[in-house]
Write a structure and sequence with these properties.
Blueprint lengths: L1 H18 L4 H12 L5 H9 L8 H25 L6 H29 L6 H22 L9 H30 L2
Helix pairs in contact: 2-3, 4-5, 4-7, 5-6, 6-7
The protein binds 2-acetamido-2-deoxy-beta-D-glucopyranose (NAG).
Length: 186
């Protein structure tokens, strides 16, 4: 067991020294300094430092944060449509509202990602304002999903709450990264 651990550690060390780009340390610093004042700093750091794409600029980070949020929103959407069934009529109604809301969030986050991928100097301010509007709307949807479960306690509600809270946290961080990107332009 110890030998295996040693081997794995050695392999990890070797592979990380082989893979690391010259600017890997500064990437890490950018993630760290960008996440410090995010709404959920450690979640921000965890999700963005394990992100496999580029993370060299505030724009990269905003895109990465939106991608994380989009991918989690999609997962929650699938989870809600395939894995959860309401037992009472109230639960079923609340659940189907949540499915609709999370699917709106997915749509809004996709639009945001498209916008961030096509940023242009002349339209930067307008595009940032779009991105901010859409991500805020996605966040609102995630928050209001749970309102439908008011007064209905039980496993369905607690499952939905756990998933929605998590996706709302990464979405909130994405909004913060968009604001940072906007400010980095000044
Ligand atoms: C972006 O920054 C500009 C200049 O500071 C500010 O006026 C504008 O409201 C910001 N836009 C967004 C969407 O935050």
């Amino acid at each position: 067991m110890e030998t295996l651990f040693f081997l794995l550690t050695t392999l990890l060390l070797i592979s990380s020294s082989v893979k690391s780009k010259p600017d890997a340390a500064s990437d890490h610093d950018l993630v760290r300094s960008s996440c410090v004042h995010a709404s959920y700093p450690s979640l921000c750091f965890r999700t963005l430092s394990s992100y496999s794409g580029p993370a060299d600029t505030p724009r990269d980070l905003a895109q990465a944060a939106v991608k994380v949020s989009l991918s989690r929103a999609r997962k929650v959407s699938t989870f809600l449509t395939t894995r959860v069934t309401g037992k009472s009529q109230r639960e079923r109604v609340a659940l189907s509202d949540c499915v609709e809301q999370i699917s709106d969030s997915v749509e809004e986050l996709s639009k945001t990602l498209r916008e961030l991928k096509h940023l242009r100097g002349e339209t930067f301010g307008f595009q940032m304002s779009n991105a901010q509007t859409w991500v805020s709307a996605a966040l609102t949807n995630e928050d209001t999903c749970l309102d439908g479960f008011e007064g209905v306690d039980g496993k369905v509600k607690s499952d939905v709450k756990k998933k929605m809270t998590n996706v709302a946290k990464v979405t909130s961080n994405a909004l913060y990264m968009i604001n940072r990107l906007n400010e980095s332009r000044r």
